[in-house]
Amino acid sequence: MSFSYQNKVVWITGASSGIGEALAHQFYAKGCKLVLSSRRKEELERVSTKLSANSSNVLILPLDLENTSTINELTQKVIQTFGKIDILINNAGFSQRSLVKDTPLEIDRKLMEVNFFGTIALTKSVLPYMIKQKNGHFVVVSSIAGKFGFYFRSAYSASKHALHGFFEALRMEVFNDNIKILMVCPGKVKTNISINAITGDGGKHNVMDQSQENGVSADECAKQILKGIENNKYEIFIGGKELRAIWIKRFFPNLFTNLIRKQKPE
Hints:
CATH class: Alpha Beta
């Protein structure tokens, strides 16, 4: 039986820009009902307007993953509105550009709080509903930084590594409940992630990394994510030549260490 997105309820975090916004357009075009979440309500409204959205098919739900106290209420609102949650896209998060020696512990904690704890808090809130309906799909936007560390990204990389451990364990636990999990590992995607990356003093990096500028488009990334969902993939890698580092590290770890050390930090 062919896969159909028609009338599936898809909750996207980080939906106000970049990969999340691109996913909103592609899911909506396939007939999905959307829940759009991020911290910026006005940007979510902009995305909804660009969709030419039927207001009954799109729910705007502002959410800050650093504050998880209202997550269960938000989940209940989705259920009250649409009656189910078919796909949760855990896409929200932010990156980092600071050396370990220059990064206060509170910055490390902030990255972990949003990228890891916020993500699993939302997942745990949605999980009982998916178990009850005996169906669901968690999509987790990690990074190739979830496979190896790199300059200036110590806590960011740690937060992405943690997601892999958590969701790989969850995948085994919910297999018999017909709940699927897709780990998405983008390399360089042309979004504002480097501009919005946090520095050691808590400010924004405010620089578009050259490699990011030359990365694949957010639309292409979203297209590959949908394809991964349709084909029930466990893990996908999206990007260009930078993806070769994953395979080199797996099969030739010593060579990987020597090569990655020579890469230009940015």
